[in-house]
Specification:
Blueprint (H helix, E strand, L loop, with lengths): L1 H26 L3 H22 L5 H23 L8 E4 L10 H13 L1 H14 L8 H17 L15 H6 L1 H6 L3 H31 L7 H15 L12 H20 L5 H19 L9 H9 E3 L6 E3 L7 H12 L1 H10 L15 H4 L10 H8 L3 H13 L11 H15 L5 E6 L2 E7 L5 H20 L6 H4 L8 E4 L1 H24 L19 H6 L6 E5 L14 E5 L3 H18 L3 E5 L14 H6 L4 E6 L3 E6 L3 H5 L14
Parallel strand pairs: 7-8, 7-9
Antiparallel strand pairs: 1-6, 2-3, 4-5, 9-11, 10-11
Length: 671
């Protein structure tokens, strides 16, 4: 039943998405990016609305998604007066069309192609993951993202705050989590990771194409567009992106793709004159959708709100550096954008109502690991690849300045000032990274801080702006050696270029996807994953089979776990309820009082305690509490290996509880 509902949801989103292609064709918008973005937004809202109302289960999510898709299709029909059921899938190739080839541009293009291997490596890995249910997920996914989402699934509401990470924003998880909600399997996580990479490629290609068009308007017409596009992806993939390939289930790539998409749509908006009312309305609406999805994914996206508002309300003036008022003359878009912003910021509002701030105060310690906090620490400036990439990327601002100076000398080139928006994107990305929690990772040796590492994936937008600026500058440099007149060879960016897939083939693609859902779901349930791949031997600890043991239990259990990855303990059908501490060293600090408080508050059936993997130095040391539990009659040992000890709790625990005085405040799961 649930698989059939998921198929219906997918058909609704697919049909809704392909209708956007007709709008994109009419207003000369990026086709595939707009369709995927619109589909992501409908999927997100289809889960958010019932989840916020306390009905986060398959049937309400299906009904809401289908209704939203139908309303969207009706609105498209009202706007375009055409409603092809399955239009041609058209790909805009204008931004990829080549210009003049020189020895330098050919060399750079070939090197760029070689540096694109991380993309091939990533998609190959995702293909293996998709057909290997027991494949490894990212550390954050099994520790934070998936356990938090499954808490929502178990509670049927997005207002559940039992876990330690429920103040996170779960916008991306609501999209890839459809397979978890409907099918109780995480193949959607793999699909979602691939989708985020595709969106990143499309958004950066779109933005780079817009900037190339701006250079053309400034009189620089001899750039080889294909070489520049390849260089952007090579700089990004070869130097930065490959460090994020292992984070399957993480949301950093998706957030960056949405921010770049929002920037690209608003940059396009600033380049359209006021006669393009329909196009400008769509650009503002799509930009608003992309920004809301970014904001629903990670709160640091708030840093980009001033930049995007400035782009939407102003445009470069004729005096090169000035800005003139550029209000959206089609006020039809503003109520929609306001409504999208109000609903899409749900996770921020629900945190404020619960915690009085945009995050759980218990997680405020993460702000100690920010760039701003460590700016005066000399260890921040020790030679390290992450620090080198961060500080050296600032040179991209010099490239932007050089491009602006060259364009500004062209007579009547008011478009030159719009190049400065890319500098604004870089600066905003750097500012967002500066106060992002856990952007800087301390490395301790014997409790002494020895080094500081940058989490470069949290600075993705800044690096993307730097990569685009550098690639554009390389393109301008290569164009200097072109001797032929631009009019004879390089008119590539002025017309739409399409690679069209006929409508019958579109239908065949839909049929393949419809068949894929029950097939992949059957495959994952045919040989159900036993254990938690990649985490049965972690941080050098001896191998444990505790995840296999838990998933082989035939009954639902309430489990208190300490020092383990919670996703592997939820059971084969997510039937177990968890209370967990990611670090077991908290038991050494609080001893019996924490365990007994958990017993009094949560009433677990099983207690599983592991050697803490983080401070592990080669000698497996379980908390001393384990030996105390072995001496108590209320704990029956049911599992033992070098890493984990498990106990079943019987009714006698209340007798032990009477001997201790417990804290009055409720105990919370510890991160």
């Amino acid at each position: 039943m649930n698989t059939a509902l998921l198929v219906i949801v997918f058909i609704a989103v697919f049909v809704n998405g392909v209708q956007i292609l007709s709008v994109a064709e009419k207003y000369k918008l990026p086709r595939m990016l707009s369709a995927l973005l619109w589909g992501c937004f409908i999927t997100f809202m289809g889960s958010l609305i019932p989840g916020a109302l306390g009905y986060y289960s398959p049937l309400p999510v299906s009904a809401t998604t289908v209704l939203l898709s139908a309303l969207s299709v009706f609105s498209i029909w009202k706007a375009t007066k055409t409603l092809p059921l399955l239009p041609r899938l058209q790909f805009d190739l204008a931004s990829l069309q080549t210009g003049p080839w020189t020895f330098a541009s050919k060399t750079i293009a070939m090197v760029s192609l070689l540096l694109l291997y991380p993309y091939a490596e990533c998609f190959a890995k995702l293909a293996v993951l998709l057909f290997s249910p027991a494949a490894e997920l990212g550390w954050d996914a099994v520790s934070y993202h998936l356990p938090g989402l499954i808490e929502f699934v178990q509670a049927h509401t997005l207002w559940s705050f039992e876990g330690p990470y429920q103040s996170y924003s779960f916008g991306f998880e609501l999209i890839y989590g459809l397979s978890i909600l409907f099918c109780h399997s995480h193949w959607g996580v793999v699909v979602g990771h691939g989708l985020s990479i595709v969106l990143m490629i499309l958004s950066t290609t779109y933005l780079t194409g817009q900037l190339l068009d701006t250079l053309r308007e400034c009189g620089i017409e001899k750039i080889n567009r294909l070489m520049v596009q390849l260089a952007v992806q090579a700089i990004w993939a070869g130097l930065i992106f490959r460090t994020s390939l292992d984070g399957v289930g993480n949301n950093d790539v998706f957030e960056a793709a949405m921010l770049v998409s929002a920037f690209g749509y608003l940059f396009d908006f600033s380049r359209r004159d006021r006669s393009h009312v329909g196009a400008r309305t769509c650009l503002v609406l799509l930009g608003g959708m992309a920004f809301v999805l970014a904001l629903a994914t990670k709160p640091p996206a708030l840093a980009f709100a001033p930049l995007f508002a400035l782009m939407a309300l102003t445009k470069p003036a004729q005096n090169r550096l000035g800005l003139s008022l550029n209000m959206v003359e089609s006020w039809r878009a503003l109520p929609w954008v306001a409504g999208i912003m109000a609903v899409g910021t749900f996770f921020l509002w629900h945190n404020i109502s619960k915690f009085g701030g945009i995050c759980d105060p218990a997680l405020a310690s993460g702000f100690r690991d920010t760039l701003l906090h460590h700016l005066r620490d000399p260890k921040l400036y020790q030679p390290n690849f992450g620090e080198f990439m961060f500080f050296s990327s600032g040179i991209s601002l010099l490239f932007v300045w050089a491009l602006w100076k060259r364009c500004a000398t062209h007579a009547g080139a008011s478009a030159a000032s719009s190049l400065l928006w890319i500098a604004g994107l870089f600066i905003t990305g750097a500012a967002a990274f500066a106060y992002t929690p856990f952007g800087v990772i301390p490395d301790y040796d014997a409790n002494k801080l020895t080094r500081l590492f940058f989490q470069d994936r949290k600075a993705m937008v800044m690096y993307l702006a730097a990569a685009i600026s550098l690639a554009l500058s390389v393109g301008v440099w290569c164009a200097k050696s072109v001797k032929t007149p631009a009019s004879s060879e390089d008119k590539s960016g002025t017309e739409q270029s399409l690679l069209a897939i006929p409508a019958p083939l579109t239908g065949a693609i839909l049929a393949c996807f419809v068949a894929f859902i029950p097939a992949i779901n059957w495959w994952w349930h045919r040989d159900w994953p036993i254990g938690l791949a990649g985490y049965e031997t972690v941080k050098g600890l001896p191998r444990t089979n505790i995840y296999q043991w838990v998933q082989n239990l035939n009954t639902a259990n309430r489990i208190y776990a300490s020092g383990l990855r919670p996703y592997g303990l939820l059971g084969r059908d997510y039937e177990n309820r968890l209370f967990y501490d990611l670090h077991s060293h908290i038991l050494d600090a609080e001893h019996e009082s924490r365990l007994l408080s958990v017993l009094d508050q949560f009433h677990p059936d099983l207690v599983l305690i592991s050697v803490d993997p983080h401070p592990y130095t080669g000698d497996p040391h379980k908390p001393e509490l384990v030996e105390w539990m072995k001496q108590q009659p209320c704990f029956v040992q049911v599992y033992e290996d070098e890493t984990v000890t498990g106990f079943r709790v019987d009714s006698k625990w209340r007798e032990v509880l009477q001997k201790y005085k417990l804290p009055e405040t409720p105990v919370r799961m510890h991160s």
